[in-house]
Design goal:
mainly alpha; globular
């Protein structure tokens, strides 16, 4: 029961975002791991991704960075409106925020909207979807992952309300095929060592969508995402992040840890795997 509640809580972020963003139409995107407006404000001025990308001629990364900034600015603008008059949006870039936090690149949250979001408005917000698609088509993996997340959100948004047991009604054939495609693409990226794909994969696997839900497999990927890449895991327990499963029964936890070790050995233990983070 505890395991079911934990899995249900993780997918709720995806379903909640899908309901808010009206997925399918170009709109400022929303992540599965929700940031507050203040966090998005602090990240909005961190435009170093775009500066570095443009200087290096990496147009795919530059487009993705622009999509990040425009989406953050949309959230900031939305947060400044009265709660009764606005739809809450979320920042798209989990990986970018993690990098920003790790480097301590936190600017004055009051000053940043004025600097980073100056001359950014509705026209730029409407470009987010197109920028993501262009960046993904040019090979940017972060953009590919974000588009996959949006597709998963759209599938969940189209489903009937959850039944008393927490499971959704069987999806249509088209939605079932779409979910399978998204799941396969995320699994492929995760198996190739792309860390940012793993929590997205976890949350889709933790959804109550029939034919997709595999919460233990999702838990294992969530644990893999916590590990260092580029070398085998130590034999001695516990693994980094294993404490997040402390509410599981011992047998289930052993299953998740064993599966995570196996997945890590396949995706992330080889030299160079850390470059895919």
């Amino acid at each position: 029961m505890i395991l079911h509640r934990a899995a249900h809580a993780r997918w709720l972020g995806l379903a909640w975002v899908a309901a808010l963003c009206g997925c399918g139409a170009p709109s400022p995107p929303a992540p599965m791991h929700k940031d507050t407006p203040a966090q998005a404000t602090s990240a909005a001025g961190a435009d170093s991704h775009a500066t570095v990308a443009i200087a290096s001629g990496d147009s795919a990364a530059a487009r993705y960075a622009r999509a990040q900034r425009y989406a953050r600015c949309a959230l900031i603008a939305d947060a400044s409106q009265p709660m009764s008059d606005r739809t809450e949006l979320d920042d798209i870039d989990r990986l970018g925020d993690a990098v920003t936090a790790a480097t301590g690149n936190r600017l004055d949250p009051q000053a940043m909207p004025r600097a980073a979001c100056r001359r950014v408005g509705a026209g730029e917000y409407a470009q987010v979807d197109q920028l993501l698609r262009q960046s993904a088509a040019a090979g940017n993996v972060d953009a590919q992952i974000e588009l996959l997340r949006r597709r998963a959100s759209a599938v969940l948004a189209r489903q009937a309300p959850a039944a008393a047991d927490g499971m959704l009604a069987p999806p249509s054939a088209a939605d079932h095929a779409e979910a399978d495609q998204v799941l396969a693409a995320l699994e492929d990226l995760a198996m190739r060592g792309h860390r940012a794909a793993m929590p997205v994969l976890d949350q889709l696997l933790s959804s109550p969508l029939p034919g997709t839900a595999e919460p233990l497999y999702g838990d294992a990927w969530r644990l893999v995402a916590e590990q260092p890449f580029g070398h085998p895991l130590p034999d001695a327990p516990p693994l980094r992040g294993e404490a997040m499963f402390e509410d599981m029964d011992a047998h289930t936890e052993r299953q998740v840890v064993a599966l995570a070790r196996d997945l890590h050995a396949h995706c992330c233990a080889r030299q160079g795997a850390g470059q895919q983070q």
